[in-house]
Amino acid sequence: MTNTLRVAINPNTKKSVVFPLIISGAVLLLMMIAGVLMLLSQGNLIKLDTIMFYKVMTLHGTGMIGASILAVSAIMWYFLSQYVPLKRSVFHLYIILFLIGVTMILIAIFGYDFAGSWTFLYPLPAISGGVWGKTGAALYLGGMLVIGTSFLIFLLETARAIIKKYGSFSTTLGWPQLLGKKEGFGPPPTVVAATMVCIVDITALIAGASILLMSLINLYTPSFTIDPLLAKNLTFAFGHVLANSTIYMGVIAVYELLPRYTGRAWKSNKIFLIAWNLSTILTLSAYPHHLLMDYAMPKWVLILGQVLSYINGIPVLVVTAFGALMIIYRSGIKWDVASTFLYLSIFGWVIGVIPAIVDATIVINEVMHNTKWVPGHFHMYMGMGVCAMILGFMYYLTRVEGGRTDSKFDQFIFWMYFLAFLGLTYSFLFSGKTSAPRRWAEHLPEWTPVDIVAAFFGFFAMVIFLLFFFRFINYSSKIGKNISNTEDIGTSTHG
User: Dihedral sign, CA of 438, 441, 445, 449?
Assistant: First the structure.
């Protein structure tokens, strides 16, 4: 069996994802450097000025989410192109606007000292205590608005193409199958996942645009005020949903590539469709666990937020994990670095959800939410889940489309990557257990030893990511050129 992994789409579409993946990889690497610098400063091994610490923290949080969204949107675009006609000009516009927004944010942080964190909670942008002025706040808020607009354009084009091909979102979410109006399986898993992402992210971007615009108005017209609780709800309805949806875009690579490795189709059966429909609702409604310490929130909302946070990730996670187990069982799969990354990204997703569910418990949240427990959960979810999916896709591209072959060194650094992230995330979780606060530039002496351990593992993860990134760049120029690869890269028993 030859070239079983190659996706049958236009070579120009294949080329179009290379640049955003390079940009994403470079930004993720820089954000890792920023994270290590913060840990070294908290561990008193170096000394960042307090304002510089919060500038770096703002950059780190904003950049990590932004770069991840850019990378997983390229994954979704790449595979969705098999099923619906997408306009590459729109994708190119998305990239251009995204980079303009990133430039505005960088100028805001390093040119005008904006250090209000990615959450930009009202009224902080306008009341900085003299650390930054209106220009810095306006550039940051405006940059976020431009990035959000670029992503909205991407999603609207995706939604347009899906509806044009399938007729409606209800069809692509499998309602005809679920209601018994149509027999058989639903649309391809990629189309189902893309539909869910369009619904939740467009909703989140509307919430984000609302609070960003209101904050910009407040910046220049202080008499225009916003209810702080409403502002915080809008901010987390925006940020939490977007961050959460990265895994739902990245998992498309799992749905598309594991079947190619095993020679087995991944079907949208009724359980699969029910799970994705539930997650569409739950992803939009689970963000209130970020507001459990805001006692002005209605009690029923907090209780609902706790319960929904428990079950938010379970439907899709369970069907994906079970499906991944079943699709490889006795398949004779020939493992390579890409397939191993994709398979173990499900493991990273599973273990990353566990500390999140713990934090969503009100009595624990009151003690743990403002500690490093939360970065521990999030770095586990992103580093071992989302980033593993991104790296798996990058390694797939360079092998199948770029002519790269796996080496023993590739296999070695793969396992080192997971060990590094396990060490980093468990260091964070342990710090949270000992009540070490997050978002503090200064740490007490009893907290610094774990900060140093985390810095070591963070540096380790950064170096390994750098090696992966260089491997991608070395072969990226060949992607989309239909390289002849006669190696049997599929399974040993199917074809």
Answer: positive
- The beta strands (E) that lie in 75-231 are given as none
Instruction: Out of 76-80, 84-88, 143-147, 361-365, pick the least confident.
Output: 361-365
Cα 311 to Cα 288: distance, rounded to the nearest angstrom: 13
For residue 494, pLDDT over 80 is answered with: no
Asked if the structure places residue 234 within a domain, the reply is yes
Which whole number is the average pLDDT over 25-51?
95
Res. 71: pLDDT tops 90: yes
* Domain boundaries, position 54: 11-476
Task: With CA atoms as reference, report the closest residue to 295 among 232, 204, 373.
Answer: 232
Burial class (CB in 10 A: 0-12, 13-18, 19+), 211: buried
Residues 165 and 83 sit within 8 Å (Cβ to Cβ): yes
Neighbours of 75 (CB within 10 A): 28
Distances (CA, A) of 43 to 40, 48, 234, 442, 448: 5, 11, 34, 9, 4
Reported as a single tens digit per residue, the pLDDT across 165-182 is 999 999 999 999 999 999
Closest to 438 measured CA to CA, from 29, 30, 37, 39 = 39
Residue 69 lies in a domain: yes
Task: Confirm if 189 and 255 have CB atoms less than 8 A apart.
Answer: yes
Is 437 within a domain?
yes
C-beta separation of 87 from 130 below 8 A: no
Per-chain mean pLDDT for the chain:
90
Residue 76: CATH number of its domain: 1.20.210.10
1 located within any domain = no
The count of structural domains within the chain is 1
Burial of 202 (0-12, 13-18, 19+ CB in 10 A): middle
Beta strand segments in 162-218, E = none
The confidence score (pLDDT) of residue 484 equals 44
